[in-house]
Amino acid sequence: MKFALSFFSILALIITGTLFFQYQAYSSDLEVGNGEFHYSQEIEIVYRENSLDVRQHFKNLPNQKVKIKWPKNAVDPTCFIDNENSCNRLSEETTYFKKGETKAQSVSYIIPLEGGLQDKMLIQDVFATLINGETSYSVVHISTEGNMEGQWVTGLPLIGQQQLSLVNYTMFSGNGAVHDLYWQTGNLKVQKQTPVLSIYAKQAVSNEFLKALESIQFLNDEHISIVQEQKPIATHDDRILFLPELTVQAVEKQVILSQIKSELEFKDAPEWLIEVVASYLVSGSIGSDKAKEMVATLKEYMSDDQERAWQEAVKGLGEEPISPTKMDELLSEVLTAKTSYFELNVTHENGVYPLLFEDGRSVYVDDLIKEDVDIILYEGQTLYSADTLLPHLGYTAGEGENGYYVNSETRSFRFPKEPGFYVFNQRRYSTISEPILKIADRYYVEEAWLQRLFLVELKKSDGRVQVLTQEQK
Fold this sequence. Notes:
The protein is built from ten helices and 31 strands. With 473 residues, the chain is of the alpha+beta class. Helices cover 26% and strands 34% of the residues.
């Protein structure tokens, strides 16, 4: 009994100590501003004298130090006195909010616009943000002089706008953050607004188009604004998109790709890879011809069980950066065979590199390992890299004017570009299958033909494939 009491006493001390150190670490995070949190904000913007006067009210702030990231071109960042407590947490150097109980703090700053507000003007990263904080809700009020005719776009849903004699007022409100502002003069208007989309265009859009938008399966419900613009403007904001043509296909592609880029992190990923991932997330086919062909290739190859497993694997992609290598690891696991399908397609710019599998065993010619020889499995055939293996067997090998030529001192082969025959020592032989195949930019020799034509024997084990020449048989 005493042993049991002693054991539980020690265990209690260990748990207490662990909790103490965890609390100390947590408290330290709060002191230095490392704790993550959510907040809401309300932003008031007045355009006057070639600048934006901004008042930004942060709400639901945590009781911890909160660092402020000001816009790069902000001028005179300071406190905005809304009430007696609206700035009591703002540090003297205006770089952070101090730890405190007050939930709301207000600041103001000026964003200069060189040359003033101009038509089709995109103002990027215009608002202050809080380090380690995620914006849950935003409200934006914008006022301009009454003689200025035009339309503001923020990416948030448009709540309303009013034109008065001295001032024009516009209000936006919705979930999430707001980063950029877009201004266009003239009669740009919201033609359609749903919980997910706002469609801005100068001309009315067809009812058929608006109806078809309802059938698109989006990845999330964060609102996006689409502006019809013949010369799209480059932007990094995933909440404002510019399209020259308003078609269902274009809207679906751009919105879904924008959403997936905001939800997932991609590393060294070409656009077609993002499109392939998006296609599986919405159970459709999105993007370029290359992405669609790759999806079709995988679908044709996979069994129903493999396709379900692959779909789940893609949907399970989380915070880890997504790269061609990562996609190949997932695909190899699902298919239980090593493949570099995505990596090979990165280097293969023209068209689609076929789906093939790699035999990872070491290749020996007689008793010497040959690390430059690859073995692949393609459409039920086992193939060896001809350009690297055949020279180890005493041949020269390479592409020529009338096909692929393989020569030694006593034996000469030509494998023509057209199928159905090959030439050996100037004599033609008909074939049903092809001894030499060209896949993308590489030549391979089929395993049975390798043994038959080049007089070798193969010995296979779990870790190696041995190619035995006549001298070693």
